[in-house]
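User: Structure please.
Assistant: Input sequence and predicted structure:
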Amino acid sequence: MKTTLTITGRGVITLPTQFRKALGISAADQLIAETTPDGILLRPAVTLPIELYSAERLREFEEAEAELATVLNKKKKSN
């Protein structure tokens, strides 16, 4: 699929609907633009959700790590 795109004075490029539909790109999706020997490559950016941990959740992690350390120490002593 090929088409000619125009860059506005503000540097905005509009991808035609047929491109967006074919690639599953929606409004507010992010793309990575990189230069290649052949020109510009646009590809979807991978975004991963993040979790902000509460103090309670951090305590759960610490308890799990302490429990694991205990198990590993017992195993190490038995060998």
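The domain at 1-47 is CATH 2.10.260.10 (Pemi-like Protein 1; Chain: D).
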